[in-house]
Design brief:
InterPro entries: ChsH2_C, ChsH2_Znr, NA-bd_OB-fold, Thioester_dehydratase-like. This protein is mainly beta and about 120 residues long. The protein has one domain. The longest helix has 10 residues.
Amino acid sequence: MTIEEQLIEYAKEGKLLTHKCTECGYLHLSTAYYCLKCGSKGFEDTILDGVGSVATYTIITVAPAGFEKYTPYAFVVMKVDNTDLRISGFMPNIATPDDLPVGIKAKIAGFDERGILIEKQ
């Protein structure tokens, strides 16, 4: 199974596949090929609970082709709890900034053709 396939399977379970550097312990998203801290190419998989808080977002009301049926939605950047990691994903049914205050608790809720799905906790 490829890393991308593993990432998808864990996201469907509300988890996040990450890579921990075997040299210095620095945590990376699973797409890293070398450690950003020490340059090592050695990693071990680490599975995290996909929970965090909304760092920022953009509300989409005019969607690109193929995504019209999902509007309105927010493209969200979520800071993962207890790490420096940030992931991005889609949060459905967000029409105004009042619907999604920055800092609100959120979690990975699955994966579909849009990518990682994030929902408010």
